[in-house]
Design a protein that fits this description.
mainly alpha, 2 domains
Length: 163
């Protein structure tokens, strides 16, 4: 979204979005102080217009509220509210994401019954893949297993300071 809008604005001689690529990746509560003024300027209405990128960011942030819901019923109500806003926003990439989430909504709402995710196993799998890539492969399966245990095992290898 940002890239397309930046390209369009630059063609009109407007450098509003120049240098803002990484600012949009922050959650509202995590924007560093050094970026706060610029972030506020970009997300507020300016010169009688609102940036499409700012609307897309606001939609992304409001979807995060879904995970704070206490029940499946509340989450479903939050989802329907968000989906209505996303479809009325007329932002192509956001509409694609909204439709994809709608297709998978029953699976998303399952979280509110079990309150578990696959985040931990995905993180470990990512670490293992990075380990395999850094080693350019392993010739011996046992060495690979040892490396996995070493890097993912959570061992504290620092000497005990009390001894």
């Amino acid at each position: 979204m940002r890239r397309a809008e930046h390209r369009r604005l630059r063609a009109q001689g407007d450098d509003t979005l120049t240098g803002s690529k990484y600012v949009w990746l922050y959650g509202e509560e995590n924007v560093p102080d050094r970026h706060q003024a610029r972030f506020t300027e970009l997300t507020r209405r300016g010169a009688g217009r609102r940036l499409k990128t700012a609307r897309a960011w606001a939609l992304k942030e409001s979807l995060r509220d879904l995970w704070r819901c206490r029940s499946r019923v509340a989450a479903e109500a939050q989802w329907h509210w968000w989906y209505g806003w996303a479809t009325r926003a007329r932002l192509g990439p956001v509409l694609e994401v909204a439709r994809m989430l709608k297709r998978h909504l029953p699976n998303v709402l399952t979280y509110f019954r079990h309150r578990i995710t696959s985040a931990m196993s995905e993180g470990i799998a990512s670490k293992i893949q990075a380990l395999k890539k850094a080693a350019n492969g392993f010739r011996n399966r046992e060495h690979f297993k040892t490396a996995i245990y070493f890097h993912c095992g959570g061992l504290d290898l620092y000497p005990n300071p009390t001894h």
